[in-house]
Design a protein that fits this description.
Its main location: mitochondrion. Belongs to the TACO1 family. Pfam families: TACO1_YebC_N, Transcrip_reg. It is found in: Mitochondrion. Helix content is about 45%, strand content about 25%. The protein is an alpha+beta fold. It has three domains: about 60 residues, Orthogonal Bundle (Arc Repressor Mutant, subunit A), CATH 1.10.10.200; about 100 residues, Alpha-Beta Plaits, CATH 3.30.70.980; about 70 residues, Alpha-Beta Plaits, CATH 3.30.70.980. It has a four-stranded antiparallel β-sheet. The protein has a four-stranded antiparallel β-sheet with strand order 5-6-4-7. Strand 1 and strand 2 form a beta hairpin. It is globular, with a radius of gyration of 18 Å.
Amino acid sequence: MSGHSKWATIKHKKGKADKARGKTFAKLARQLEVSTREGGGDPASNASLRTIVLKAKAAQMTNDAIDRAIKRGMGEHSGAAFESITYEAYAPGGVAMLIDALTDNRNRTASDVRLAFSKSGGAMAEPGAVGWQFSRKGVVQIDKSVSEDEVMMVSLEHGAEDVVDDGDTWRVTCDSHALYELKASLEGAGMTVVSAVSTMVSSLQVPVTDIADAKAILRIMDDLEDNDDVQDVYANFDMSDAILEEAAS
């Protein structure tokens, strides 16, 4: 989780954020649409939709765009029929990855995901080979304008499992169902929540020190996230800031 998080920060600093924003909005719209079709258009009663709405707002997606996607999911506007697929794979260095996709063409997506790994020295894995080590958690990043003791005092009273120094922020991990209560409690205590997401967190971290492996892993991450069908990529690599900077350059 920490390596993945640092990599995303480096991409932002290198000016890729604007290019990625359009793709992010398109993917979020697809997620909103599918979640609405599966569980209804009311975030209060559809936990999956509530999670994606929060994610969309954190990405600065407009309320109008969110509403349009939900209306498509409710059948008020036409839209393609998508199915959800999760792929499991290994990147160089033994790094485990989960790839969540929403697609209207299973064969196309499977081929694209397989190519992203094969051309960079990775390989697809059998179902269950990777997924067992990942579990869904809520992760809240808090600005360091407050102390760790202050964060812990509030967090532990509202479902937090762990508080970790994540460089520029405090990272608080909780059960995914406690995410909204925890976020609200931290903000109510006057803390600045940088992000709050429901994500997949691995119980194992794989240190990556070889620069060739690091470059290959980040190339796979970039290729997957450039794919419109791929919605989320989760990985368990842990790289030092120096390795990440060199590999991402």
